[in-house]
Amino acid sequence: MNDLKPETGTWAANITKNTTRLAVWTGAWVLTMALANYGPKFLWNSNEALTIIAVLVNLATGAGMILANKRHLQGLDELHQKIQLEAMALALGVGLVVGLAWSNLDVSDMFSSDAEISHIVILMALTYLGGIVVGHRKYQ
Description:
mainly alpha, 2 domains
């Protein structure tokens, strides 16, 4: 846990710095994800070497994002950490349970279209956002 006290301006500045750092890393990760996904089709004509490099850059940027998220969480006070943990647990559970159920239905040809990972990511993101909102209201 952070040694800075919540009452000080330094603590608030640290939260702002960590949040900004997380936003920058998340934005960079999204951009490198788009590059790895769309680059082979629109930028370099399926060149395997460039695609591997783009995926590796995406993985490295993702690692940076994970570390920035960890630092952000460590800088929060106990209540905000609890809210984050509960929202993350909910998002993971919903993503896992719904994703696997959807996959089973897809494998059984119950859908005319394929189950896409992007839909599960969106579901998890919306669940996480909802968990944050509910958590803040719960502890007001």
